[in-house]
Write a structure and sequence with these properties.
The structure holds two protein chains of two kinds. Chain A is mainly alpha-helical. In chain A, 50% of the residues lie in helices and 0% in strands. The longest helix of chain A has 24 residues. Chain B has three domains: 45 residues, no CATH class; 360 residues, no CATH class; 135 residues, no CATH class. In chain B, the strands form two sheets. In chain B, strands 1-2 form a two-stranded antiparallel sheet. In chain B, strands 3-4 form a two-stranded antiparallel sheet. The longest helix of chain B is centred in the middle third of the chain and has 39 residues. Classes of the chains: A mainly alpha, B mainly alpha.
């Protein structure tokens, strides 16, 4: 094996780390296969780059593979060579079949999280003054209408959250509402899941269309309450 | 459409009729019919009441044809406008420093430029005809807004053409004395006109994305208001840098291909050196490009939240993962080329720098892993359930801009240090302050890297505007500070350094040539990808919010189908460039080798990077 052994060990170790170690770190979860594949691809690219930096390391890396596949007088490895030459195309064929054959499993999702809002909702500013009273009132509305799903702690873990896939947004996560302007939230709350544009369909959102139940002013107050409660700030340009 | 279908039916009937009459007749008829089809389509549209708004072409479609021609024109234009910048800089280096090899290199760059210029203009002309033919309503509107700048553009083109002819054909005649000064001035003028040739049509394209429309005033005032739109200067800067990157990498690829094919040692040395210079120029631009791109996106986001979200969070957001991959390959390819240079051109250096190269490689890969990690992941239902949604609870934080900005800055730092390492390889410091100098440089690098990371992490805990306006700009400023500190310090150190190992040109392995070609392909793919992004971000508008696209092609193509056009454009552009270069260099092999003596060839010092004074004196 020689110089070939280290890269193989590294690839296996990386796979085991991504598959079994990283998911068990507190606060983590299993990685989807697409991400594992991506990281393994980068690892393989790194190995090839490093091993071909000099003539010696390149020969040490490719040499055994080349000898195995094309060399003469390899003795007992001859049978293994034929095995590889037969099995490798079969493996490729199997993979190709597996990825193209019809299956009852739903396709992997590459869901777009932030659909673009309609033009009439861009650039709106919150008309409600940001006073402690209004924020408190917004939190009250939030507790009544939003917290069953989005959680009393604004963390997306309300009592009804378990029933939804995808789960309700976690506002305490700095990568959700902190990235958005208030006008965006206003549109999403007002129009709900049914008001999402068709550009990135199929959307999956159980968000009610709150415009039929709540006046605009309440929605703006809820937005203030959400940001305050989740300890986040909306995106602004000032 | 019915007229087109009728036309197709007619052809099919004709084909059946000639069955058995010989394949040539069928082929001829088919060719005539195919050529006639567009006119059928055009006539069909033209027969409708009112002014014609759109025309179409069968099979390929008007939008796809315009897309391909526009993309090819833009790629050629990027090359034609980027190359004069560094060709002229090379000439200035030769003029001021007396190193003739730079003059020879500048001339070779300009030779490629001259042959590509006509093709660029040709594609520009085709694009104009296609736009006028297929999109008369839009072109009427744009002409109404931009009429004065159309005239200016024509004038600029005349001036650029005349200057290029003088610059190229006068090269040998204006080699010495005041004539050389005049030639250098012509080179400056060439770049001056080229800059304006780029920014004038940029105004038309950016107006479509971020229009500023005023109904009052003279034609000039209206054109000026439309020109000075919010994304005009961000695009100007971004394209200017991108053109240098494109030009550098394509010249590098040209040198790489020539390097792989030439036989003589002299040619191998020359094209090895030219490949190095091409890669250096590409990397030099690449270091600044992410900053310009970030500024552009910021302006787009600020101009219109809808467009910003469409690009970065909406249906185009996956495009940026592909972009990350392409940029990552470009960074890896450029660094790989530097590292191969250390190993092969400076014998004995590999042992010394192998560990450093490994550390840099691992750091680059870690950064790339972060850059390529999407915010919402591709996952099956089971996987999504295990993660608790499309966001991974731990790695999801890597999917937002704070992380991306941090790693892109770190990758720039690493690449810069790769270059510094290459620069220093084969030299031994003799200056008394060398130890202190290197300690200062090391400290600057470490502290800067830490500061970039700290700001990146801190960015999660501050309002978006603080992160965008202060933290991200600070990260850029820190990287700029490192580059501006370490470059002169290294140059000073090397001024008195002793060369321990002479640089051996022409000793690179074939994979170095392939790496140069790979870099060029990556940058072309990147430009085609971003062309699609810029155009698709307008969604169903010709002029965003002002003129709606009411053609059958108002939809934005999905990334998968768009990638077919991108791949085709990349492939066709490479073929086109290869053909142009082949034509440009066709006569070279028949020239006598006299005059191109070894004395002019590079020995011992890296291009554009200074070097040991002894080596310079030898030249």
């Amino acid at each position: 094996m020689g110089a070939l052994g280290k890269p193989i060990i590294l690839m296996v170790a990386m796979y085991l780390f991504l598959k079994f170690v990283l998911p068990n770190i507190p606060g983590s979860a299993p990685l989807p296969s697409s991400l594992i594949f991506l990281y393994l691809l980068l690892t393989a690219a790194g190995i090839i780059i490093f091993e071909t930096l000099s003539g010696e390391s390149k020969d040490a890396f490719w040499g055994p593979m080349q000898r195995f596949l094309t060399g003469e007088n390899i003795g007992g490895l001859q049978a293994l060579r034929y095995g590889v030459l037969v099995l490798f195309p079969l493996l490729v064929g199997w993979q190709t079949y597996g990825s193209t054959a019809s299956s009852d499993a739903p396709p992997a999702e590459s869901r777009t999280i932030h659909p673009a809002p309609p033009g009439e909702y861009t650039g709106l500013s919150n008309p409600v003054p940001k006073t402690p009273e209004n924020i408190m009132q917004g939190k009250g509305f939030y507790a009544a209408f939003c917290s069953p799903c989005h959680g009393g702690n604004f963390d997306g873990k309300g009592p009804a959250a378990r029933g939804y896939n995808p789960p309700p947004a976690n506002f305490a996560d700095p990568t959700t509402i902190a990235m958005l302007q208030e006008s965006y939230l206003f549109w999403r709350i007002k129009k709900g899941g049914v008001g999402l544009p068709i550009e990135g369909a199929p959307w999956k959102s159980a968000m009610p269309r709150w415009e039929v139940e709540l006046p605009d002013e309440w929605i703006w107050k809820i937005i203030m309450g959400e940001y305050d409660g989740a300890h986040q700030s909306p995106r602004t340009w000032e | 459409m019915s007229a087109i279908q009728q036309g197709v039916g007619t052809i099919q009937r004709a084909l059946r009729a000639v069955d058995g009459q010989g394949g040539w007749l069928a082929g001829l008829l088919l060719a005539v019919a195919w050529l006639a089809l567009p006119s059928i389509g055009l006539a069909a549209e033209g027969a409708a009441a009112g002014p014609t708004e759109y025309r179409d072409i069968p099979y390929i479609g008007a939008r796809n044809l315009v897309w391909i021609v526009a993309q090819l024109h833009l790629l050629l234009a990027g090359f034609v406008l980027g190359v004069p910048i560094f060709a002229w800089l090379c000439e200035v280096i030769a003029w001021r420093g007396g190193e003739k090899r730079y003059d020879k290199l500048a001339k070779e760059f300009t030779k490629l430029l001259t042959s590509a210029y006509a093709t660029t203009a040709l594609f520009g002309g085709i694009l104009l005809f296609l736009l006028v033919a297929f999109y008369p309503k839009l072109m009427n509107y744009l002409t109404d807004v931009f009429f004065p700048s159309f005239l200016l553009y024509c004038l600029l083109f005349l001036l650029e053409t005349a200057t290029l002819y003088l610059y190229w054909y006068g090269w040998d005649a204006m080699q010495y004395g005041n004539k050389k000064t005049l030639h250098v001035f012509l080179g400056f003028l060439l770049n001056f006109f080229a800059l304006f040739i780029m920014i004038v049509p940029n105004a038309w394209a950016t107006f479509q994305s971020s229009p500023v429309v005023i109904s009052e005033g003279t034609a000039f005032e209206r054109a000026w208001a439309a020109t000075w739109n919010p994304t005009w200067w961000p695009i100007n800067i971004h394209r200017l840098i991108a053109n240098v990157v494109l030009g550098g990498y394509i010249c590098g690829a040209y040198a790489g291909v020539r390097y792989l094919s030439v036989k003589s040692t002299e040619d191998r040395e020359h094209y090895d050196w030219m490949g190095y210079v091409g890669n250096f120029i590409g990397v030099f631009g690449l270091l600044a490009l992410p900053f310009a791109g970030y500024w552009l996106m910021r302006e787009i986001y600020q101009y219109n939240q809808q467009m910003g979200i469409t690009l970065m969070g909406g249906f185009l957001s996956w495009l940026f993962i592909i972009q990350a991959m392409l940029i990552g390959v470009l960074f890896l390819g450029s660094n790989y080329y530097f590292w191969l240079g250390i190993t092969y051109r400076i014998p004995g250096s590999e042992t010394k720098y192998r560990r450093a190269m490994l550390m840099m490689l691992v750091s680059l890969l870690l950064c790339l892993a972060v850059w390529m990690t999407p915010h919402s992941l591709v996952a099956s239902i089971e996987e999504a359930q295990k993660m608790g949604g499309a966001h991974h609870p731990l790695l999801g934080v890597l999917g937002v801009m704070s992380a991306k900005m941090t790693v892109s800055n770190l990758m720039i730092l690493i690449t810069f240090m790769s270059f510094v390492m290459y620069w220093r390889a084969g030299k031994q410091d003799t200056a008394g302050w060398a130890t202190l100098g290197k300690a200062v440089m090391g400290a600057v690098l470490v502290l800067a890297s830490l500061a970039v990371i700290v700001l990146g992490v801190w960015g999660y805990f501050v309002p978006a505007i603080v992160r965008i306006n202060y933290f991200s700009t600070s990260q850029v400023a820190i990287v700029g500070f490192v580059i501006l500190t370490i470059t002169p310090l290294t140059a000073l150190l090397l001024k008195s350094a002793r060369t321990t190992t002479e640089m051996v040109w022409g000793s690179m392995p074939p994979r170095a040539g392939y790496a140069l070609v790979l870099n060029a392909v990556m940058v072309i793919l990147l430009m085609t990808l971003m062309g699609y992004a810029r155009s698709s971000s307008r969604v169903h508008w010709h002029v965003y919010g002002v003129m709606r696209d009411t053609s059958p092609y108002a939809y934005s193509p999905a990334l998968g189908s768009a990638s077919l056009i991108m791949a085709f454009c990349t492939f066709f552009f490479c073929i086109l460039v290869a053909f142009i270069f082949w034509v440009a260099t066709m006569g070279d092999k028949y020239k006598t080798p006299a005059g191109g003596g070894k004395g002019e060839l590079p020995h011992g010092i890296p291009a554009m990077a200074g070097g040991a004074p002894e080596a310079r004196q030898q030249q």
